[in-house]
């Protein structure tokens, strides 16, 4: 096999321009595969993060949507103790309200959340652009869009009115930016205790228990398990996958299209290598005939082209990985949003990149099977006789 390897290397070096073209062809194919695959993965990650990055994966609420969920602490204990893959739980109250400031009035969503300064679900603190989190009674955070509409400033007061519950004055202590216009224009955050007091809820009454998981795509499975534990209780469970079927369908379509593009890129690479190496058999037929006449057996002759395929795949794969990563960094550098962030966040998955490199080697070796078999069947007498 060592002899086959040496001869394969010499054959490749004897026609450097042809070898370079094959390596570049493999590299371009692999770089396109890495670029498209990573771009689609980054797009999917961005879409998922925008949809559920700061939202519940699994939610428990009262069966009667017009009533609060009682005994909320027992549900929190169930989620944190019985499910190891739950990463965070929040007790939340969601209440539609009317906001009044001077002569302006609009509908908003009043959200009372537990541990507002370190809430795992909403992670509000990094999103605060001015001011801080509520510390004293009846203080709120509002979105930048809502603040602009109200021409509000820190320490301004707003009135929130809930039909059947009356109105209450709240002090603005900060502004947030969720990067989502609808949220910035309608959400108002307050402490859970203040909203409970405003609405007349007991200490253990909330609208919903929200939980996030290590793997968001297990939400449907975990929601089913939670539902089994909720049987006989006045509570119901839902999850983000059930509520976002169109998004999941779109993600599946993206994955399928990405796979098809990558598949045909690899097929084109395989066909290109096979055709070039098949021509190489003809070009080197005289040398092969002489080698066989000198005692090289058919198996050793076929190994020459298998090693050629391996070397071409290795070189093309490594170069393709470098080109692919370069394309990704180039895209993230020049394709930017107005705020300077990449249009699509780039995800460099080392497993996918390594897998792409392995595909280059395997595809090249598969492509070399045809010329390897062809060289195996060469008759040294006929080759030398016919030139």
From TrEMBL:
Pfam families: FtsX (PF02687), MacB_PCD (PF12704). The keyword Disulfide bond does not apply. Keywords: Cell membrane, Membrane, Transmembrane, Transmembrane helix. It is found in: Cell membrane. It is a multi-pass membrane protein. One of its GO terms (biological process) is lipoprotein localization to outer membrane. Residues 19-223 form the MacB-like periplasmic core domain. It comes from the Bacteria. The chain crosses the membrane at residues 20-40, 259-282, 303-331, 351-373. Residues 260-380 form the ABC3 transporter permease C-terminal domain. GO terms for cellular component: plasma membrane protein complex. Belongs to the ABC-4 integral membrane protein family. LolC/E subfamily. This is ABC transporter permease. It comes from Proteinivorax hydrogeniformans. The lineage of its organism: Bacteria, Bacillati, Bacillota, Clostridia, Eubacteriales.
């Amino acid at each position: 096999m060592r002899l086959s390897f040496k001869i394969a290397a010499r054959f490749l070096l004897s026609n450097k321009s042809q070898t370079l073209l094959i390596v570049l062809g493999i590299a371009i194919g692999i770089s396109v595969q890495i670029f498209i695959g990573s771009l689609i993965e980054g797009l999917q990650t961005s879409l998922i993060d925008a949809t559920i990055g700061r939202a519940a994966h699994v939610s428990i609420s009262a069966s009667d949507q017009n009533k609060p969920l009682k005994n909320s602490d027992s549900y929190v204990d169930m989620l944190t103790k019985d499910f190891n893959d739950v990463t965070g739980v929040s007790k939340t109250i969601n209440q539609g309200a009317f906001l009044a400031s001077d002569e302006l009035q609009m509908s908003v969503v009043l959200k009372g959340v537990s541990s507002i300064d370190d809430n795992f679900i909403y992670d509000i603190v990094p999103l605060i652009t001015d001011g801080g989190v509520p510390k004293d009674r009846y203080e709120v955070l509002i979105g930048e869009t809502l603040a602009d509409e109200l021409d509000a400033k820190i320490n301004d007061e707003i009135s929130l009115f809930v039909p059947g519950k009356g109105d209450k004055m709240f002090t603005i202590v900060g502004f947030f930016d969720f990067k989502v216009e609808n949220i910035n224009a309608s959400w108002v955050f307050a402490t859970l205790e203040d909203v409970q007091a405003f609405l007349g809820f007991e200490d253990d009454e909330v609208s919903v228990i929200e939980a996030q998981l290590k793997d968001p795509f297990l939400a449907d499975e975990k929601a089913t398990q939670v539902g089994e534990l909720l049987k006989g209780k006045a509570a119901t469970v839902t999850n983000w996958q059930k509520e976002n079927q169109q998004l999941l369908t779109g993600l599946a379509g993206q994955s399928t299209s990405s796979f098809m593009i990558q598949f045909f890129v690899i097929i084109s690479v395989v066909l290109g290598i096979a055709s070039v190496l098949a021509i190489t058999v003809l070009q080197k037929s005289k040398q092969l005939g002489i080698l066989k006449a000198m005692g090289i057996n058919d198996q050793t002759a076929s190994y020459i082209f298998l090693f050629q395929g391996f070397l071409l795949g290795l070189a093309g794969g490594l170069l393709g990985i470098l080109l692919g990563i370069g394309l990704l960094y180039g895209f993230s550098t020049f394709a930017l949003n107005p705020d300077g962030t990449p249009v699509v966040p780039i995800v460099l998955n080392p497993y996918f990149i390594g897998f792409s490199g392995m595909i280059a080697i395997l595809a090249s070796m598969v492509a070399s099977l045809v010329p390897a078999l062809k060289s195996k069947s060469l008759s040294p007498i006929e080759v030398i006789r016919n030139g």
